[in-house]
Structure formats: structure tokens, C-alpha cells
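Name: Nuclear transport factor 2 family protein
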Amino acid sequence: MSAPAGETGAKRAAPLPEAATLTNVGIVRRVYELFGGGDVTAIHELLSEDFHWDYFGPPELPWAGTYVGRQGVDRFFEIVGGLIEVEEFEALQYTAEGDRVVAFGTSSARVLASGARYTTHWVNIFTLAGGRITRLLDVYDTGTVLAALRAPSTGPGPR
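Structure predicted for Nuclear transport factor 2 family protein:
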């Protein structure tokens, strides 16, 4: 049986009371605020049950891949948190149309194993439905990240 015209068959969760007062851009901004505050668990409430995250990058980038559901989100942050410390993460511009929000930004991080640092540009493309994020396409300057991950140790250095 096929889905009715205009429907993809994706599971749709009931809208969140808080999300009902937020625009799609507001929901994305809230995700970044929660991430900045280290509250990944609270991000779960802004995601659909069948949330799908594609982080683009070559196979040698340890966190490149597809993450599904809230467990996938936790797995992503577990991998990243074991390798880098994010020092700065800033969305610089938002563009929204219909059910999509595109955020452009920069981030800086320190590689835990070597102390190497990098700053990179990124684009996040969110799809939302019913006040929840259903999909994230995550595009980074992975060349800069890989160069830092491959760098020799610089010693303990400042934190």
C-alpha cells in the first residue's frame, strides 16, 4: 500500500507544546542552545522518533555516517566527545523556507589526543514536521578536521 499523495510514510510525533510557539528557525536555534549548554538529552525532545542524521565525510572521519533516532544522536556525541573538545560553535546565518531551515556557521575544536586545534565552516540543513526535527544533513569542511585529527601530539597544552 502506498502513502497518500504528499505523504512519505514517515512517523509523525505529536507537536510539542513548547515547539508550538516556536518557528522552525526557533527550534533549530534551541537545538544549538542546548548543544552549547551540553544538554544533549534535552535535544531529544525536539526530534521526531524516526529522526535521521547524515554527517557527510570520508570514511576516515570517525563520526561521518548516518545516525538514526535518539540513540543515534547519543552515539554521534559519544564518538565526537571521545575525540575532540568543541571550543566554539556558532551559527552565523539562518535561511528558512517551508519545512526546511539551513544554518551556516563555524566551529573550533581541540583534538584530545594531540592538542591540535582547528576551525571550520559548516552547513546544517534541517527538515521539520509537527514542531520536531525529522532530518539533518550535516556538511563540514572535513579536510580541516582530518588534518587536525592526523596532527602529531603537541603535548598537554592549555585547556
